[in-house]
UniProtKB/TrEMBL annotation:
This is Flagellar hook-associated protein FlgL. It holds the Pfam family Flagellin_N. GO terms for biological process: bacterial-type flagellum-dependent cell motility. Keywords: Bacterial flagellum, Cell projection, Cilium, Flagellum, Secreted. Residues 5-141 form the Flagellin N-terminal domain. It comes from Stenotrophomonas acidaminiphila.
Amino acid sequence: MNNRISSSMMYDQSVFLMLAKQSKLNHLERQLATGQKLVSAKDDPVASGTAVGMDRILAELDQLGSNAANVQNRLGLQENALAQAGELLQRVSDLAIQSNNAALSAEDRKSVSAELRSIRESLLSLANSTDGNGRFLFGGTADGVAPFSANNGSILYNGDQTQRQVEVAPGSFVQDALPGSEIFMRIRTGDGTIDGSAAAGNTGQAVLTGASRDGSASWNGDSYTVRFTGPGAYDILDGGGATVGSGTYAEGDDIVFQGLRVRMTGVPAAGDEFTVGQAGNRDVFSTIDRLSQALQMDTSTLAGRTAQQNLLQSSLRDVARASEKMIDSRASGGAQLSAIDNAASLREANAITLKDSLSQLRDLDYAEAIGQYKLEGAALQAAQTVFTQMQSMSLFNMIR
């Protein structure tokens, strides 16, 4: 097989070599101008694909950061609203204690009742707080409308019971603001487990100051009635009206039965009844309404004053539970805010690691690139010199 070396072939090879060197120089110039090692995906397809995946993860971290900022704003506003609500309830408690003073006149109680109504309206306004973006804090996921509204003197909850879970770091979720039903509506009465009340028709001077479980015995969860049958004598009736116990009462003594303990002051009259059982739920607005109504009761008779004191004592217990609910809700929000701070640290650590890896994949090593640029420049000059010399070569020159 014969191989022929022609002038055309040598020219083509020289031109191809120069163009290749020039293309390499242009690529190096783009790298030096941008500071990027990967000018296009063809430079390193595997590294480019990896870098795109890291960019996507960094974008997701930015979105998680936005999520965290949004929920942090809402939780901060919730904290402010609950702090103000707690102060209002503390004022309600102070007014209830003040109102229990027999020296207050009817006009004084009327003034206190008016202040209580004002506090109720302030609480309603706080319960309908927004996050600054047109969304209501305490409506759950139904936060497009005001969660609380007045209807015939009662307050209705229009939101839902769902508490959003918001992702603020990879695999890390925090809870959004609490639904208003959990803060303002479903508040346990009494001591949170046991509650008691005086019958409306009582004629004596006995005031129920508290009811709780007695640690020395178990309570079966039923409701019972303490019915006084004579001076100091009482029967214990179960929910069906059957007598399950009896005893005698001296003022200042606790009445203990069936795992329950009842505390009273004053002297009951025959026929007076006090019911004790499992605590129910009452919204904070109704609690304030009951307290306001108690201040407007007719106290011209001994029985009327005693009924008012029983209602005031009941309201005091309910206000205390409402205050505890505010504190618990603030603690829950504080825990979520702490989790957001921890999530921020996790996002920052992940972002630093990813950016470092991206830098290794994309960022140009200037010293290496400049050395390669000079080397390719020298190679291009050599190729151009060879091509120039080759242009002057001819077989005709050899035979002249």
